[in-house]
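We emphasize that the prediction below concerns an isolated chain of 453 residues; any contacts that depend on oligomerization or on bound cofactors are therefore not represented. The input was used exactly as deposited, without trimming of termini.
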Amino acid sequence: MPGCGVVMRYNRRTDEHALKVAGRLVPEAALLWCATIDAPMNMPCNNPLKYAVVIADGASGEPLDAYGGQTSLEVAHTPHLDALAQTGLVGLSKNVPDNLEPSSNIACTAICGYDPALYPIGRGALEGAALGLELADDEVALRLNLTHVSPEGVMVSYSTDNISGTDARALLTELAAALDDDTFKLYPGVGFRGILVVKGHPGLLQTRLYAAHNMSDEKVAGYQPHGPEAALIINYQNRARRLLASSPTNTARRNKGLLPATDVFVFWPGQRPQHMTSFAKLYGKNAGMLSGVDLLNGIALLANIQPYHFAGVTDGPDNNYTAQAEGALQILAEKDVAFIHVEAPDAEGHDGNAAGKIAAIEALDREIISRLVPLVSSLAARVLVLPDHPTPVALKRHSRDLVPFVLAGSGFASNGGRRLTEAEGARTGLIVSPGYQLMAMLLSAESACSPAH
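Result of the prediction step, given as a token string:
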């Protein structure tokens, strides 16, 4: 079927950077080959297949001493993911280019099939887009976290112990009432997150600001902003600290035995985003996104992927996996491609909670993957499952290591992989670099259009 296919080739690696997975160098045997895909910009294909992309945010990591040197993916009981792995392709993906930070906006942009180097949109602007904020040309949007810092100056919780949306909104509303002016405007986001819009200070894009979750268990004094607008941000954060100390919402939290929000930290600046090439134009498919975080919904809006919202889908351990699974099936009934993003493994990794991270992976398998397996078995769908980046429990922050993936369904035969784990991905020797090419592999019509081929 001319014009419908994607040509896959395997080439010897030529890049100079050593690749790592689970904190270890990938074995030499696996370094020899790397998939590259020659894909047209538009891939129309008349077939009834559906495509599900499950992003297990931060699910990969490094060996855990408490679990005999196994990673969270290795410890987790995942019979449905195992079934997909044993019938499809297992490999490793490089979602984060060497010159970019290992953040979810970079990695998830790649998973959605876009080269993140071509879309350098600051995460604050992406999350602002999900809130419907229209930035002026002279405005910069930044992420703001409500955090708890100890009296000794140590970052105890980058999320104020995953503060409730109700309390977070109350605190952010208090701050906005006191601090909003011609320069600053603060908007509540999801949970502990807010978006701070700053007018007239483009130097923020050249100012070094540090993500709050990268300070966990460390003295925050070592993460002071520096650069052309450092003083502006330091002053704002200091004023917010003084207000939070006398906040009625914080007083109520203390009386309930809950952590108060003591500080805010501002980071990830971005200007008004330009729309990406639409997903439908790029890949010839319409798509929907189901996520509990603004970032993914912001990426979706820019790519003309329809965001879906279902009650109970959240950004943390209280996520209703059953509701998310049923929502995914509804999207597949309405769209060609469903993106299902689960934040909980990443949140637990940032909190250093190995048991919680393992439980999140198992819940994803039990409730979401289990509902997708029958579609794969009936040859009605293809499924891609992978983390965006690792969030090792011991580090409590992202790393840029490769992540394992499973690609299963019509047209894909087993390459000997047994599970979605870091070690299995390395063992098969299949490495997709750059990772954004995974989308072309998933949508490859060469085998999906059978029996025409």
